[in-house]
Design the sequence.
């Protein structure tokens, strides 16, 4: 007989008939919001509802990179504060999140990419974020293994260097936040499915689950790629979100060769070396909407070709594991963080695409204040869904446009 499962962060709670707030989704954003609601706003009677297990979705299916070198003035303050928060949160939770600000190198492969990156650097420096342009020789000094010769598909002309960027363990963040929230009285209900969201007279009143009904005045939908289907299916609100697969993989363990996170828009690739010595590498999303996390041979081929071109020392190295995750993409590569004007007590946090992991803690901090007081913090206002109605789309997509001599 198997012993009854007990979460390491505390006793498995019973489902109450009512909560001050219900958070749908046991990922990083949901757990962070629950933690800060309890810590900063005294709402101890909170439920996090997760259909599978915490960290099941995007929280456990990423390459753990954090940075604050985004492009737009509206995004940068949030990501800067997110980077600054990781050491604070590590101490606060008394849990090692394994944060390593090893620096981020975004390789540039043409004069046009260098010119475009000058705006990134200027915008970052305006917000006191350390970011600078370096040439190919300086790239080689930072990463001796890199190939800066002219006989590769996209020769390295330089890089956008962002020293504060780095990596931390995504599973450690999940467990640390779960432990911290549970210690403050938050109930985390795994293997519990939300089947309905009820509202009366324009106000949230309850949530239906397969374990029973929960009365609550506040609901946050923070279920990653499944947020759009939950909101549209249960509340009839359409969101401008497409769900796309992102794949990633790791190599066999190697001796240290990478001291920085490296990315390249031209090669459509990014990578870092883990504590175990594996090269963790990912690329852009699959180009068609879907809800599958299956892997493809084309992706494996692409990663092998790209890695072996500008890091020739990796030729012959074996890939050991591959996985896929779902990204909820908006048209302007920016999230939707909103309280619904039509249905009071309904809050949304979705559409993060590539960037959800980087910002989870700081977004949870501010979103908790939004849910507790009803007043949206200024730092979150640009992410309201009304920007689509008002034609105020953000320009973050421009930071992801790659240059190729063939197009």
Sequence:
């Amino acid at each position: 007989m198997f012993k009854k499962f007990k979460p390491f962060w505390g006793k498995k709670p019973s489902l109450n008939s009512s909560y001050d707030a219900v958070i749908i989704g046991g990922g990083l954003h949901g757990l962070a919001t629950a933690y800060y609601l309890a810590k900063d706003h005294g709402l101890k009677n909170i439920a996090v509802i997760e259909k599978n297990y915490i960290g099941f979705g995007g929280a456990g299916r990423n390459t753990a990179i954090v940075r604050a070198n985004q492009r737009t003035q509206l995004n940068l303050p949030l990501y800067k504060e997110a980077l600054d928060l990781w050491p604070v949160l590590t101490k606060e939770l008394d849990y090692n999140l394994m944060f390593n600000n090893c620096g981020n190198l975004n390789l540039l492969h043409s004069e046009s990419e260098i010119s475009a990156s000058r705006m990134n650097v200027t915008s970052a420096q305006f917000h006191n974020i350390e970011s600078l342009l370096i040439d190919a020789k300086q790239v080689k000094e930072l990463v001796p293994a890199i190939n800066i010769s002219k006989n590769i598909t996209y020769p390295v002309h330089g890089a956008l260097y962002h020293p504060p960027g780095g990596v931390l363990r995504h599973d450690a963040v999940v467990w640390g936040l779960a432990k911290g929230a549970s210690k403050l009285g938050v109930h985390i209900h795994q293997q519990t499915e939300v089947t309905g969201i009820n509202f009366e007279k324009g106000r949230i009143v309850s949530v239906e689950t397969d374990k029973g009904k929960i009365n609550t005045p506040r609901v946050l939908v923070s279920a990653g790629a499944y947020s759009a289907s939950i909101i549209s299916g249960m509340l009839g609100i359409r969101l401008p979100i497409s769900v796309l697969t992102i794949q990633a993989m790791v190599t066999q363990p190697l001796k240290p060769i990478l001291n920085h996170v490296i990315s390249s828009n031209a090669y459509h690739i990014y990578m870092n070396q883990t504590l175990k010595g594996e090269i963790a590498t990912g690329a852009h999303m699959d180009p068609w909407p879907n809800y599958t996390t299956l892997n493809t041979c084309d992706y494996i081929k692409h990663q092998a070709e790209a890695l072996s071109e500008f890091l020739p020392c990796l030729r012959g190295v074996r890939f050991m594991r591959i996985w896929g995750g779902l990204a909820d993409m908006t048209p302007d590569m920016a999230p939707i963080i909103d309280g619904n004007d039509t249905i009071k007590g309904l809050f949304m946090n979705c559409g993060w695409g590539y960037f959800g992991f980087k910002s989870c803690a700081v977004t949870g901090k501010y979103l908790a204040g939004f849910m507790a007081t009803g007043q949206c913090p200024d730092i979150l206002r640009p992410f309201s869904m009304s920007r689509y109605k008002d034609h105020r789309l953000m320009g973050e997509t421009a930071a992801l446009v790659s240059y190729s001599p063939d197009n």
About this structure: The chain has two domains: 21-61+171-240+332-398, 99-165+242-331. Residues 226 and 328 are 8 Å apart (CA to CA).
